[in-house]
Amino acid sequence: MDLNGKVAVITGAAVRIGRSMAIALAEAGIDICIHYRSSKQAAEQTCSELKALGRKSIAVSADLSD
Fold it and tell me: Residue 37 and residue 28: Cα distance in Å, rounded?
């Protein structure tokens, strides 16, 4: 399956398992929207790493409980 150019929205992608998922998907050719609640610095760092892999990436803050 060709995943190049697809987009994934990953909640909690700034750290731990979410971050690992974001990196793996980016390596497979998927652009990533990183959701974070309070880990702004970590989200921006992960976003930079994904861009270095040649993928589009954006970090978005949201409280998903509301």
Answer: 26
Non-local CB neighbours of 25 within 8 Å, separated by 6+ positions: 3, 8, 10, 32
Which residues are within 8 A (CB) of 44 and not within 5 positions of it... i.e. 6 or more apart? 59
Give the residues across from 32 on adjacent strands.
8, 57
pTM metric for this prediction: 0.88
Tell me the average confidence (pLDDT) per consecutive run of 10 residues in the chain, 66 residues long. Answer: 90 91 96 94 96 96 86
Give pLDDT, residue 1.
Answer: 78
d(CA 66, CA 48): 28
Q: Do 42 and 13 meet the contact criterion of CB atoms below 8 Å apart?
A: no
